[in-house]
Amino acid sequence: MEETKYVNLATVSSGSRQFDMSPRSILIMFTSLCFFVYFDRGVYASVLDDVQKAFGLSDLQGGICSSGYLVCFCLSSPVFAQLAKYKPPLLMSALGMSVWTGAVVFSGFSQDFWTLLLARALTGVGEASFLVVSASIIDYISPKNSRSTYLAIFYAAIPIGYAVGAGLTGVILGAEPFGKDWSWRSAYFLEAALVLPLVLWIFKAKGPSSMYEISNESEGSGHSVVEKKIGWHAVKHDLITLASNRLYITIVLGYATQTFFIGAVAVFGVKYIDQQFDVGKTNAGLIFGGVTFVTGLLGSALGGILLDMTKPTGDNVHFAQNEYAAHRVILICSIFAAPCSIISFLMDSLAGFVPLLFLGEFAAFMMTGPINNAVIWC
After folding, report:
1. I need a surface site. Which of 107, 125, 184, 243 has the fewest CB within 10 A?
2. 219 three-class SS
3. Distance (Å, rounded) from C-alpha 357 to C-alpha 346?
4. What is the pTM for the complete model shown?
């Protein structure tokens, strides 16, 4: 029988001694990175129809370009996870986001399916460079009784970034300030210009020499300890450890289901509203972006706050108990999210579609904080 390992949460304390910034500044930095990564997703969703017409792409090819980042993300994440054990995580994130910024500019200059696919795939490298360390760092620096709230704020940047990207790009496309072809390209140039100061900030920031340094300081305090191993044997060891953790596998499979829904709606949501209800690209982007903004902001925040309120407190609380509290929140949200989301796409009117989509997305985003907390606590 698999032995459950308990850690006394009373011994866990927040810390940011390894950084030259306050916990709030670190949270703002990583949240801003997350915002722009998903701002980029919103941009692509809004320009998809224009890109398909410009390059003669089918819906399948448009979907492949959208998910192209996932290939590089999946391939580079284990590499960055290993590098973070003995390399500065902030420098690693800065270098990765530099690649991301270049890939965004490349997206604006793409000329066909293959160049666009390559550009979108390279954004996955930048995304992986900071996502493999961001949640652990935020968990490390956050106040003991606000960890779920800190992570909820971080993950709220996902829907907010997407919503702002989709809405702003919809306005640009409606105005066509640079002509039909260059207007959708200008959206990529705009986001690259906006994220550049943030990348420079990360380069300047001082942090730990490795995630091992953080973990070594936290050893015995409840944080997961990173073993300073490198190479294939280290990767093999980590994969075996994760594969043997049934709770982790269950949570990740559930998270994949949620991501499948959110990802599909994110890519084709704007186009669906425009074509199904004939409201125009600008209105479609604003409607979908508005729903995603409100549900993402409120849902992500409420999910984290609800978890902080319902998880046990005291001197004898263990991580396993917090995991079960997170599972309860996830289960309740799932029960509401699934039927509302499915029924929304059966509606023939915009008045019936929007409220149900709102409820479905709201419940889905409420799961974000609890899911990611549960992953960390496994």
Report:
1. 243
2. coil
3. 11
4. 0.75
